[in-house]
Structure formats: structure tokens, C-alpha cells
Amino acid sequence: KTAYDNFDSLQIKLPKTEAISSGIYDFTEYQKEGKTTIVLVSQKNNNTLVKLIDYSKIVSILIERTGMGSSGESYLVGKDFHMRSPSRFLTKRIPSDISVKTKGVFDAFSDSSERRIFNDYRGVEVYSAYSQINISNLKLAILSEIDVSEVKAPTELLIAMAVRAYTIVKN
To answer: Which of 1-15, 17-31, 108-122 has the highest mean predicted lDDT (pLDDT)?
Structure first.
């Protein structure tokens, strides 16, 4: 064993034009394997220190679905319009391979925080709440969504029951 056995290696090749200063960065698009790579960078006395943020902590926050029904999910999207957190529906895909060019993502990156109905990255109509995360050099869109069909189901069932009850009473 060496002193380096416990270090995670970052396989990142940054373009020469990428100016790095102290801050937090999303380096996912530069990561060879497409893994979500959020890092803290500290520039001090001509030294650069880089700390990889524990991705599992980010995911543990996003997978909390209390009150979001069976179709609800929250996820992050990078400025390249690809996911940064796992999809609960496309579980076999690497997040950075999933393109998310929806109304919510475009609005979030335009500094708009809204709630709207539109088709999500799966093409399913959803109620969505979204905003931009803008910390230091990090820009991500965060979205929380639930399928419209799931939200409407109890109302549609109630209407059907009321129609049946009316039909029975009328006859």
C-alpha cells in the first residue's frame, strides 16, 4: 500500500481556455467516464487544491420523495443540458448521457424560478417547479416534478363515482 491508495483520481482534461480560480465547479463534461464531478477549487500562494464533493450526499438529498407520489422526482441539470443526478426512470443510463432540454431547464438558466406544466425529458406531461443554483462558478438547474396524470387521478375517480351515483339515484 502507498499513501495514494485512498485517493480518488480525477480523470479530467480541462481545455486550455478554462480559467480556474477559487470556487465550486461542475467538471462533469470534462470527466472521461461522464461521472458527475462537482469540485471545490482553492487557489492560494501559487498552489491549486482540488476537493471532489461526495456525490452520494447530493444524490441522497435529491432522492427524498416524501409527498411526491409514485412519479415524483427531483434532479439537477448542467449548463450543457445533461443530467447531473440519476433519473429514477432511466436507471440504466449515466446521468450525463441524458439530455434535458425542457421549458423548465431553459427558464432556470434564464434566472427564472417558476411552476409550470410541460413535457419532461421523457416526453411525459408534468407539474414542475424549477430554479437555478448559482454558487460561485457553479450553475445548475434544479427541478422537482410529478406526472400530471398522477395528480389528476383522484379528481377523475371522484367525478366517475359522482356520475355513477347520479345515474343510480336518477333511475
So the answer is: 108-122
Place of cell 491508495: 5
Q: How far is CA 66 from CA 72, 86, 130, 141, 146, in A?
A: 9, 18, 17, 21, 12
Over residues 26-73, the pLDDT tens digits come to 999 888 888 898 998 888 888 888 888 888 888 888 888 888 889 999
- Mean predicted confidence (pLDDT) in 85-100: 95
C-alpha distances in Å from residue 149, one per residue of 8, 93, 132, 145 = 43, 25, 26, 12
Please, which residues bridge with residue 132 across strands? 141
Please list, residue by residue across 25-61, b when 16 or more beta carbons sit within 10 angstroms of its beta carbon and e when fewer do: bbbbeebeeeebbbbebeeeeeeeeeeebebeebbee
Give me 157's grid cell. 375517480
- Decide if 145 contacts 127 (C-beta within 8 A): yes
Neighbour count for residue 86 (Cβ, 10 Å): 20
Residue 65 φ/ψ, nearest 5 degrees: -125, 20
